[in-house]
Amino acid sequence: MNGLLSGKRIVVTGAARGLGRSFAEAIARAGASVVMCDILADELHAGAATLREQGAQVEALAFDLADPASIGNAFDAIAKGGALDGLVNNGALATGVGGKTMMEYDIDLWDRVMQVNVRGTWLVSQAAVPLLAQRPHAKIVNVASDTALWGAPRLMAYVASKGAIVSMTRSMARELGELGICVNAIAPGLTRVEATEYVPAERHQLYEQGRALPGAQHPDDVTGSVLYLLSPLANFVTGQLLPVNGGFVFN
Q1: Domain range spanning residue 222?
Q2: Which of 60, 122, 155, 226 has the smallest CB count inside 10 Å?
Q3: Using one digit for the tens of pLDDT, what is the confidence trace for 63-91?
Q4: How far apart are CA 141 and CA 161, in angstroms?
Q5: Is residue 117 included in any domain, yes or no?
Q6: What's the CATH code of the domain at 212?
Q7: PANTHER family in the record, alphabetically (predicted)?
Q8: Is residue 1 one of the residues assigned to a domain?
Q9: Is 105 tagged catalytic?
């Protein structure tokens, strides 16, 4: 393990699998203590156990981003372990939210996506700020999506939720800067993980053929951006959006 994040304590939501699991693994390898969070309790605890076997310092807490009480209880438990140096807001509802046009979307699905992806990110950040404010140069990294930059069709609720994450990042950066907290966002492209297995082959091809760096995107292509934004290298970077998509979209 290298020491880029040595001595730091960082929360990662949506950490049971996919990008979130990769973020947690990379953060642990960089020397930090990781608090892995997800609603998928069995996968979460299995992933945490694997990292502990590799020598990482890992906590695992299952909670529901759609449930304010669940978030509050989780952060009460996190607070018992002390202050935080970072938060990665990766948790989101992505599977099963695409395929319908804006005319076909139903209100319940729209509200569910907003409840988890937007309100959940806000509530987790709100709960984390008192712990982040105790540490110098604390960081929040919000995970948006490049779908919000190019307007992916038949995915409107998800696209809208990730566009909200971009805007929230800028507002949070203005408000939390006086506490010394940096807030930034990344916008990954379509990544080959469990949550994108349902994505039609033609959408994968669109990305893989349309990138300035052609080919598939994998979790390891994204983790470096998160490590950078959590690290002392980014102590004077805030309110920014970093697309990480091989040049499918430029910002």
Answers
A1: 9-244
A2: 122
A3: 999 999 999 999 999 999 999 999 999 99
A4: 16
A5: yes
A6: 3.40.50.720
A7: 5-KETO-D-GLUCONATE 5-REDUCTASE, ALCOHOL DEHYDROGENASE, PUTATIVE (AFU_ORTHOLOGUE AFUA_3G03445)-RELATED
A8: no
A9: no
